[in-house]
Amino acid sequence: MKSIWTITKRELAGYFNSPVAYVFLVIFLLMTAAFTFLIGQFMDRNQATLQPFFMWHPWIYLFLVPAVGMRLWSEERRQGTMELLLTLPISLWHCIVGKFLASWIFLTLALVMTFPIWITVNYLGDPDNSVIVASYIGSFFLAGAYLSITSMTSAFTRNQVISFILSVVICLFLVLCGWPPVTDVVETLAPRSVVEFVAAFSVMPGIEQFNNGQIDSRTVIYFLSVIGFPLFATSVIIRGLRA
Amino acid sequence: MIKVENLSKAFGPKNAVNDVSFSVERGEILGFLGPNGAGKSTTMRMITGYIPPTAGVVKVGGNDVTEKPIEAKRLMGYLPESAPLYTDMTVEGFLGFCAEVRGINGADKAKAIDRAIDMCFLKSVRHQSVDTLSKGFRHRTGFAQAIIHDPDILVMDEPTDGLDPNQKHEVRSLIRRMGQSKAIIFSTHILEEVEAACTRAIIIDQGKIVANGTPKELKAKSELANSYVVSINGTEASAVRDRLGSIIQSAKVTIVIDKAPTVVARVFPKKAGADGELGQAIFAVAAQNNWKVNEIKKEEGRLDDVFRNITLSDTKPQ
Amino acid sequence: MKKESKYAVFLNSIGGALVILLCVIAFNIISAQFKMKADLTEGNLFTLSKGSKELLDGLAKERGGDDESSPLEIRFYLTRGEKGVPVVVNEHGTRVADLLDQYKAYAGGNLELQKINPRRDTDAEELAVNDGIRLLNNAFYIGMAISYLDNTEVIPVLDPSRSTNLEYDISPLPLAASRNTFIIISKIREMLAQ
């Protein structure tokens, strides 16, 4: 257990030693604000809800989370430190979890830094705060899911850009396969049951549930699966690379 | 402490390491010699658990590296060929990380870092970021990482690669010192390093072991071993060749240098045990002919000779 | 000569990974049957209230398990995919649709739910007009009709605000939506009472 934390600490320090982390935080906060106030028409709606804030997260995360996670394993391979890490007395699984946690903590920090908007909506009106809590939890899981996928793609290649693109594509699929505008179109082409089955793989219905203040066991299991399986796949890939 | 049994590694159809067996005990410093691509690094990577073997067993301190990797890795310090480091950390930070992963914390950690920094002469760069270090310092930081937990077993892949002669000398004496109480294996191209630091050497070629013995034993395999090199003034090469060639114990005489007024000749003994008598015979002949002997030396044999003869590098005509 | 056990080797291969993936999917499907939900909204918007459940239980009793008798029909109209539909309307409509899904899930065969998208100049629009749903902003419909036996109750506009020209107050959404729920329930109650 302690060795996981050692890895996490090192990785987190690595993030904050580079200006990229701060740039990312600023961009994330600016983008969420822009989408909420300008495109989501937060002020015009006159409603005490943070829906116009949370509804953009699946799209904003789509690019920002892979940007954070793409260096996770690509960097180790490029620098050659994989050889160092894997000959230390620490299991591969601990390394994977440790690095993942570091990035997840960083993303959660970014999410927490959006608290001013929560304060704002409480100042302007009387929102349902437990719904907002549920929405934050949903966003937290969403970031973790995208991140886990990025961890997997970054183990796959030495090149951070390829890792980024692969991750975006996979996450985009997970968004679109359950996004009503897309499913409505696909329904005209394929049988409903097939569309519904594929849509069950999507993060959108789950996020909608969280944003509606519902915490459903099925959705939690879904997110834990989308976080857990790619991490397992990461270990398969890394082992396979050295076989 | 390191036991390698029938170790093999295949990358696709190619056999990088082919049925290699050897062992290293405490107090031994094993030199791993071989041409590029012979399988040295691959073997070391299997010992340290970075690559899984295709066949065979590696036991480190009694632990099978495949079955008990964590226990095995705990006992070893490893310096890979590329001396990889985390470039976004300081030297001290990096060593601290390595110590922590190995379970050294608190006051012990500080002590271990100090010790490693002293031993590897890293004091002046202690707080410097790794990416600003010169090659020599980088290598030494990698070395420091390998010894930070004072392991019983050290595995090093070309530890003096890229260092200047002074640094090479320091690293070699460090290895010699530590070798007294540890089991050390290191790979190198530099033959004089083997003589300088190893108690035993293995030559590996195309994945197979082709020689295994102390440096002395290996040198003795040289064709030049036990021959005499004589430097003579006051005569001509032909006379030297004839007179020395007629000695009973001599099998062959070659003229090495023929530059007036000196002739340098190499006399090969007929059979191994006869070299003592050959030496005396040479003296006798020289005295008889009134030659002035500048120097007479018995050849121990040269490693590069042995090396070139028993390894099939691609520079040799087949 | 033992290497990694056979299981470990397989597990770590692509084949093994696929097997694990299938297991994960299967686990998700199975556990979806045993749903546990926490509803954090004020007023428990998305969980059927006791009142609603009692209502639907009453409906079930009335039908008495008779498959021949006609069930309670709800026709829900929401225009999608047209320009000029405010985002808020879309969201609100989706929430109501979700609630109706809950009713349907609870009532099973006793409730027939139709979700209709009355876009301009379509047959669906005719259905909406026939049911008395009101066109808003000259662009969209959001309303529903509830029929049981021979009676039909209509909610021409599922409008969270008080006024009908779409001025949305600074009113908390839960209260507004629960107002709609209340309307729906009372309409159904009225109908069953006839």
DSSP strand count of chain A: 1
Overall residue-averaged pLDDT value of chain B? 87
Greatest contact between two chains:
A-C, 39 and 37 residues
Order of helices and strands of chain B: EEEHEEHEHHHEHEHEEHEHEEHEH
Q: Helical proportion of chain A?
A: over 70%
- In what range is the share of β-strand residues of chain B? 25-35%
Query: Helical residue percent of chain B?
Result: 25-40%
* Silhouette of chain A: globular
**Quaternary structure of the protein:** heterotrimer
Commentary on this structure:
Chain A has 15 helices and one strand; from the N terminus they run H-H-H-H-H-H-H-H-H-H-H-H-H-H-E-H. Chain A is mainly α and about 240 residues long. Chain A has one domain (about 1-240). The mean pLDDT of chain A is about 90. Helices cover about 35% and strands about 30% of the residues of chain B. In chain B, a hairpin with a 2-residue loop joins strand 12 and strand 13. Chain C has helices spanning about 5-10, 15-30, 50-65, 85-105, 125-130, 175-194; strands spanning about 35-40, 70-80, 110-115, 135, 140-150, 150-155. Chain C starts with 5 loop residues before the first helix and ends with a helix. The chains are: A mainly alpha (about 240), B alpha/beta (about 325), C alpha+beta (about 190). The interface of A and C includes residues 184, 212, 218, 229 and 235 of A.
Compile the SSE list and pairings.
The complex is a heterotrimer of chains A (243), B (318) and C (194).
Chain A: H1 2-17, H2 19-39, H3 42-45, H4 51-54, H5 57-69, H6 71-79, H7 81-85, H8 92-112, H9 115-124, H10 129-156, H11 160-176, H12 180-187, H13 192-199, H14 204-211, E1 214-216, H15 217-242
Helix pairs in contact in A: 1-8, 2-5, 5-10, 5-11, 6-10, 8-10, 8-15, 10-11, 10-14, 10-15
Chain B: E1 2-11, E2 14-24, E3 29-33, H1 40-47, E4 55-60, E5 63-64, H2 69-75, E6 76-79, H3 91-101, H4 106-119, H5 135-147, E7 153-157, H6 165-179, E8 183-188, H7 191-197, E9 200-205, E10 208-213, H8 215-220, E11 228-233, H9 237-245, E12 250-259, E13 262-269, H10 275-288, E14 292-298, H11 303-310
Parallel strand pairs in B: 3-8, 3-9, 6-7, 7-8
Antiparallel strand pairs in B: 1-2, 1-4, 4-5, 9-10, 11-13, 11-14, 12-13
Helix pairs in contact in B: 3-4, 4-5
Chain C: H1 6-11, H2 14-31, E1 37-39, H3 50-63, E2 72-78, H4 87-107, E3 111-116, H5 123-131, E4 135-136, E5 140-148, E6 151-155, H6 173-193
Parallel strand pairs in C: 2-3
Antiparallel strand pairs in C: 2-5, 4-5, 5-6
